[in-house]
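Page 42, continued from yesterday. The earlier attempt failed because a stray header line got pasted into the input along with the sequence. Redoing it now with the clean sequence only.
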Amino acid sequence: MEQLSFGLPALPRATVRLLFFALRPDAAVNAEVDRCLPVWRGRFGLRGKAMAPARRHVSLLALGPRTRLPAGHVERVCSAAAGFSCPPFEIRFDRIMRFGGNNIVLTGGNGNLATDAFRQDLATRLRNALPPQHGRFTPHMTLLHDRGASFATSEIEPLGWVVRDFVLVESYRGEGLHVEVDRWPLADGAAVPPIDALAAT
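This time it went through. Structure tokens are written below.
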């Protein structure tokens, strides 16, 4: 399965602070993942270091490296994101698989159509502020990185949550650090049109 690529040229690891929109699991889901991980390790022969709960997420849209964005761009994007409206929706994972090389992830056999629709609506809202988003979007949550494990995509007991907010994350590549830049709650109502002012950024 093809991994979603942000289509960005390689930069020195120490300088990359990559901004992206994401969904984050709640505390109950993180606790359930922590409970299931030892079982999955035994069942699938996983040996890699697990992703810290604070870094678990479902990537949605890339904004790009902070150092390459114009002054004030992040603030304008955050203002536009604050005007986005969408009802809460459910995301559900029922499979574990290798994805994009050595990533071991949870994904959903049903395609998580609500997540895909949410991402498309958010992209429309922010269309003048985002770089091209390359690759096919497959909602997934990375558990760990493991070069050696070899197993077929397998079904697991379903695990998911009701998405009630989305976040802008700043990832310090190579440092294992994710900083939450901003968070926005979901609420009933139609999404408002894109802000034309973003075209000037």
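Notes: The longest strand covers residues 89-99.
Reminder to self: strip header lines before submitting.
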